[in-house]
Amino acid sequence: MNQALEAGNGIRVLVAEDEPLAAMVVEDVLSELGYDVLLASDGEEAMRLAERQVFDVLVTDLAMPRMTGWELIPRLRSKRPDLPVVVMTGFLPPNGREVLLSGQSGPLALVLKPFEISHLVRALEKVIGNRAECGPALLPVS
Question: Can you give the pTM of this predicted structure?
């Protein structure tokens, strides 16, 4: 079997990204690695998809229209506290790390934009690998 295909092993990733080009690049790379990707253009669409479809991990931007990643993460984790999350953002306020960890119980990785796509893939692998750990884990990747 193709080694790249084994990486994702059919894991379903919900990607919430409002920038079309960035969303397309993330979808293409993750799909090629064997991940099953669901795309949402903002947090509201991601919530609708999450209500109708099962997914294993969330990859989200923080700054999006209608519902931000700041709002999306706690809403999804209220139903699935151990949900693995990768946050992609171009701006993180000084207390952003603390806010992201506040009340969170599942693994979380942070990738700062602009980033190399390999950083996102590594972050995804880390949060998926750390699903079973207890307590929040902020995993800086880039």
Answer: 0.84
